[in-house]
Amino acid sequence: MSETNPAAAEVAAPHRYTAAVAAEIEARWQDFWDADGTYAAPNPKGDLAGDPELVAKPKKYIMDMFPYPSGAGLHVGHPLGYIATDVSARFQRMTGHNVLHTLGFDAFGLPAEQHAVQTGEHPRITTEAAINNMKSQLRRLGLGHDKRRSFATIDPEYYKWTQWIFIQIFNSWYDNEANQARPISELVARFESGERAVPGGRSWDALSAAERADVLSEYRLAYASDAPVNWCPGLGTVLANEEVTADGRSERGNFPVFKAKLRQWNMRITAYADRLLDDLNELDWPEAIKLQQRNWIGRSEGARVDFPIDGEAITVFTTRQDTLFGATYMVLAPEHPLVEKFTPAAWPEGTHDAWTGGHATPGEAVAAYRAQAASKSDVERQAEAKDKTGVFTGAFATNPVNGEQIPVFIADYVLMGYGTGAIMAVPAHDTRDFAFARAFELPMRCVVEPSDDRGTDASTWDDAFVSYDAKIVNSHGEDVSLDGLGVTDAKARITEWLQRKGIGEGTVNFRLRDWLFSRQRYWGEPFPIVYDEDGIAHSLPESMLPLELPEVEDYSPRTFDPDDADTSPETPLSRNQDWVDVVLDLGDGRGPRPYRRETNTMPNWAGSCWYELRYLDPHNSEKLVDPEIEQYWMGPRAGQPHGGVDLYVGGAEHAVLHLLYARFWSKVLFDLGHISSPEPFHKLYNQGMIQAFVYRDSRGFPVPATEIEERDGAFFHNGEQVKRELGKMGKSLKNAVTPEAICEEYGADTLRLYEMAMGPLDVSRPWDTRAVVGQYRLLQRLWRNVVDEATGEVTVVDTEPDEATLRALHKAIDGVRQDLEGLRFNTAIAKVTELNNHLTKAGAAVSRPVAESLVLLIAPLAPHIAEELWRKLGHTDSVVHQDFPVADPRYVVDETVTCVVQVKGKVKARLEVSPAISDDELEKVALADEKVVAALDGADIRKVIVRAPKLVNIVPA
Fold first, then answer.
1. 252: helix, coil or strand?
2. What mean pLDDT value characterizes the chain?
3. Closest to 99 measured CA to CA, from 761, 887, 884
4. Which residues pair with 180 in a beta bridge?
């Protein structure tokens, strides 16, 4: 029958598998799964406790990265990872596991707030509408989620616990001796008892409440401080470093971003830098992601060195303390707090004109340069620009190893966020320092002997000499000399000398900075923090959680001229005085008192830092998660020493932000005894991206891909030739294809198969709607192998299959099982297709055991048609929890393999032999072959090389 004439085919075959049949089957089984609770994963206890026999099975916890419910809905690129985890979860259920697989929504975010600003409609309304739309789209794909466990981060019963976790972090400090977080109350007890000295030397009792709060703020894992931030006037909010693009603009909105000093909440993630690095070794993550995290954390060993100045000191961190004798000037970050303190009123006598920037006083020069630097991003400041900029502060510091007075500059290539915000400049041996010294006519001193013929007069060099494998020269003082030492020995000697003198010490530094945790927005989790009359921050008691967002008339933070850096935030919450100013009894024995609420909100990352835990125990109103339930699903076990989710699938774009933040929260909760798993995700898998062709007109604007006409390899839109390029899929590029469109034309199972068959899961691949039909035809052929298209009757027979079919079947079972285990879905589909084609070509009715095995093989990939065929084959229970077929090893191996026999290196015979044949047996068979006998022609044999079962090489004498 013709596959090109659907109408005729339907008349000839009324029970054929068509899009309409697929739609009816899929809707019916989706309803059944919901009503039956097919995908409910039982907990060992609690309100989600279930079948103890199922709980006794090995568990698998499979997760997708939290989706954000966009109002635009899904295109076919979005479900790639969701389908993959669904296939994996279904396979794991069929191989005897209790599988937890569900999906929630990361629903706080700027898009909904921007919509609220524009329309006045509450962001919850648009967000919930987007969630409902996304749920409907995902349901149509037949995803096997445990819907009892789903939630959104905007649910007050969810963000109650986000606020609770913040309070735990706020009320904790990092005990370096114990190498873990501890309750802040323990630190207070140590200060009170005198076991630990109070910074500044005073007794704890002698400090005022505000002074005690200031001391504790230096230890708390969540703290507020005045710090340099990325201020975006165009958005009216501050941004984390990761939310600023390389050209110094906001990731959202593309507004200019400036450096400003504001009071903000921070998370002391730096306390965990070593553990965040070390524990990566035990995680089953892609090496590329581990490398990105290691680079972001940026551990480096070196020394802290104090350079005296006006009775105080500028502290630097350097990894090349062996070059201290070569330091001829210093550079501070423009934001360094000591800049103003050490900037004199007038230029010192003899100041070089190149150092002043053309300004009359050091104060003017510093102020002008600071304003210039504030307009650049950290990336721009660190770029290897040809022209180095900076200005002399008018101050001199003392090089501690030789007593030389060296000038102190500020320059934007030094960042306050790295090290101490100050560097010692050794221009002869650092490329950036060399360029700066050339620009400002500063001296250079060679202290590392060059390995080329440039000599040791650095003033004659064209560039710096940088080496970690050379001898130190010109480096001796009154009581220390490094001359003649290698770099490693020189570092050790100078570090010991610095420590003995009390002017430095060996130390470790990290690139990682504390996490900026404040946003000047409405649509986010309110901080559970209030301030008393003295400005001291207090956390709310758990009984007052959740602290919900109040109603406001204006959802927007105050925004400013995008180019006006001299502005500061005004948040939507701060305009609701009835909510901000409250009288509360915090249960601390002081009774009701007036307080002022925190008017910033948490960043949209907050809710996704811990959601893997709430999936475990989503309705627990008494605890974050029951310890026994957390231990069951996520606790450490063989091969997973840090516990965590068994499989976590999502995009590689979250390599740093989300994954690093979630790891930090897990470690704090682990240290405080709330969970047993110090890592949230044991195995991470990054799926590729589904791309699509973008068509652009002569202006470079995208035109609708559905309106493109192809002629002779060229592409036209309304008669005009357009350019085609491969890129992302999306509404803005006018190339989005919705899942609904494919489901309408082919069915959800076809869409699932096509997305899994396009290529390896971790590789990006182009979408081609024309190719979808290939998987549609696979399902039609599968249907025909079980169901008569004319009558609708099942056609399988209760006879044993022939040996060729058994071999095809068991090879498919073996291959598909291995492929599904390894997330190689494209090759699994190829093996199912091969088996199905074998049955089709045989032309006879399919044996029932073979048909049932085929249905079970495809069930994880195409669950709706599998359920329908399983029911038609006479079964009354769902295919979802059936055992996945197991291959019989007798039929997996080839019946025979071809063995090549060579004489004098030339092939003389090909033998069909058993795969299990021994070397001795194979040698006898080869030597007896008549073609081999003829080739030898009676010659003696010097050597026979046998590589059973595929090669025999005979070497005549």
1. coil
2. 93
3. 884
4. 175
Alpha helices (H) along 298-377: 338-342, 353-356, 362-374
The phi, psi pair for 77, rounded to 5°, reads -75, -30
What Rg do the C-alpha atoms of the chain give, in angstroms?
A: 35
- Residue 183's identity, in one-letter code, is P
Residue with tokens 């501690």: 400
Question: Looking up tokens 């060195």, which residue turns up?
Answer: 305
* CB-CB contact of 689 with 77 (8 Å): yes
Count the alpha carbons within 13 Å of 146 in the hemisphere toward its beta carbon: 24
Q: Is 754 exposed, middle or buried (CB count within 10 Å of its CB: 0-12, 13-18, 19+)?
A: buried
- Residue 605 pLDDT greater than 60, yes or no: yes
299-510 under CATH 3.90.740.10, yes or no: yes
Nearest 5°: the CA angle 143, 145, 146 is 160
Domain boundaries, the chain: 164-274+515-597, 299-510, 785-892, 894-956
Topology annotation, domain 894-956: Ubiquitin-like (UB roll) (3.10.20)
Phi-psi bin for 940: left (phi > 0), alpha (psi -120 to 50), beta? Answer: beta
Please give the torsion angle defined by the CA atoms of residues 563, 564, 568 and 573, in that order, rounded to the nearest 10 degrees.
-60
- Measured CA to CA, the distance from residue 35 to residue 762 in angstroms comes to 34
- Work out the burial of residue 639: count CB atoms within 10 Å of its CB; fewer than 13 is exposed, 13-18 middle, 19 or more buried: exposed
Kindly give, in sequence order, each residue whose CB lies less than 8 Å from that of residue 336, ignoring residues fewer than 6 positions away.
410, 416, 421, 422
- CA-to-CA distance for 237 and 221, rounded, in angstroms? 23
Q: Report in angstroms the alpha-carbon separations of 425 from 61, 325, 465.
A: 52, 10, 14
**What's the DSSP call for residue 637?**
B
254-272 confidence digits (pLDDT tens): 999 988 888 889 999 999 9
User: Would you state the structure tokens that stand for residue 421, as one six-digit string?
Assistant: 């915000």
- Assess contact for 168 and 672: CB atoms under 8 A: yes
d(CA 446, CA 40): 71
Amino acid letter, 177: E
Fold of 785-892: Isoleucyl-tRNA Synthetase; Domain 1 (1.10.730)
Place of tokens 């802040």: 184
**DSSP codes, 78-114:** TTHHHHHHHHHHHHHHHTT-EEEE---B----HHHHH
DSSP single-letter state for residue 847: B
Show the tokens assigned to 557.
């933070």
Q: At 637, list the tokens.
A: 């076990």
The closest alpha carbon to 166, from 24, 266, 53, 25, belongs to 266
pLDDT one-digit tens code per residue, 343-385 = 999 999 989 998 998 999 999 999 999 988 877 766 677 665 5
DSSP state of 634: H
Phi, psi (rounded to 5 degrees) for 516: -70, 120
Distance between CA atoms of 221 and 669, rounded to whole angstroms? Answer: 12
Q: Is the pTM of this model over 0.70?
A: yes
